[in-house]
Amino acid sequence: MSSRFPSFKSNVTKANNTNLIDFAKSHGYILENGGRRALHAKQSGGLYFFKDNNKYHHFSTDTHGGPIDFVMQFWNMNFKEAVAFLLESEIPRFTPLPHSPQTAGQLILPDKASNYRRVAWYLVHVRGIDSEILSHLMHEKKLYQQSKTGNCVFVGYDQEAAPKYCSMRGCDPNRPFKQDQIHSDKSHPFHISGSDNSTRVYVCESPIDAMSHATLTKLNGLDWRADHRISLGCLSDNALERFLSQHTIHEIIFCLDNDYNATYRDGSPAPNWGQEAAFKFAHKYYELGYRTSIQTPHNKDFNVDLVSMRQPTTEEKSPIHEEDCDYEL
């Protein structure tokens, strides 16, 4: 037995050196840019693969690890089965990226465009966001248009009004793009401020979801400025924890995605990640003394709900083009 142990140990090392990103791609995961260090798997409940350390983190279940842990969790295998499964794959070994001595630093916001025409067109006429809400966020410097690329730029600030979080979103409906700026800290949320005496916060996954929820509130004849709205940027509640430490809040309403059509890499149904996270968070913060509830979108998210509601009205009007909109700085 002692002669076989070193062999098994070397096999474990070899299995854990499987290139996890290539492995995920080969098994059907659709990966998109998730920031400087990570790739995000679509419809996965906040599944991220990290380029520099060959590990993953799944925010919905708060699990993480290397290739063996990944196979054990998502293939429902035990340790030995996972090692054998990885050794049989033809995936290349992981090669660490060159180490950068600058592991932390100051967030530098992307350059601003001279006007916000493309962002206004995209958010108002493609995403259905109310123009008053758009203008309000632009004046608060929480939203602007990136120069050259024309991307939407969403910004979160700390209590000293210093930018700490920056998320970019493409404005071409046919070429989806989203990315966080280098040194962006997701624990500082994108925040649509409520009134000074508000003690309620609506928690969404993305800035566009938060803006869509505010728009739906206005369309229902209510004051969208009455209460706070924040976005988590994923399915971690770090941003909510920070927000609660800085504001007097009594009620939290979770407005996370309705991932009813999420699937695993083989096409089989996956859990409804957004709603599972909402239930988990609702219970967690109820136990901490907050009033909690859940608002579930009818479709995948509140922006799809908003666009669906606006569609009949949009079709009745003549087409509106990007050049018709011009929000000057």
Structure write-up:
With 329 residues, this protein is α+β, with helices and mostly antiparallel strands. It folds into 2 domains: 5-88, DNA Primase, Chain A; 117-324, Dna Topoisomerase Vi A Subunit, Chain: A, domain 2, CATH 3.40.1360. The chain contains 10 helices and 14 strands. It has helices at residues 5-16, 20-26, 67-74, 79-88, 117-126, 131-139, 207-219, 238-246, 273-287, 302-316; strands spanning 31-33, 38-41, 47-50, 55-58, 63-65, 143-145, 152-157, 163-169, 178-180, 190-192, 200-204, 228-231, 251-254, 291-294. The strands form 3 sheets. The protein has a 5-stranded antiparallel β-sheet with strand order 1-2-3-4-5, with helices on one face. Strands 10-12-11-13-14 form a 5-stranded mixed β-sheet, sandwiched between helices. The longest helix is centred in the C-terminal third of the chain and has 15 residues, at 273-287. It is globular and about 65 Å long.
Which terms summarize this structure?
Dna Topoisomerase Vi A Subunit, Chain: A, domain 2; 2 domains; 10 helices; 5-stranded antiparallel sheet; alpha+beta; 329 residues; globular
TL;DR of this structure?
With about 325 residues, the protein is α+β, with helices and mostly antiparallel strands. The protein has helices at about 5-15, 20-25, 65-75, 80-90, 115-125, 130-140, 205-220, 240-245, 275-285, 300-315; strands at about 30-35, 40, 45-50, 55-60, 65, 145, 150-155, 165-170, 180, 190, 200-205, 230, 250-255, 290-295.
DSSP strand (E) fraction?
15-25%
Return Rg in Å. Answer: 22 Å
- Architecture of the largest domain in CATH? 3-Layer(aba) Sandwich
Counting helices, strands and paired strands, the structural category is alpha+beta
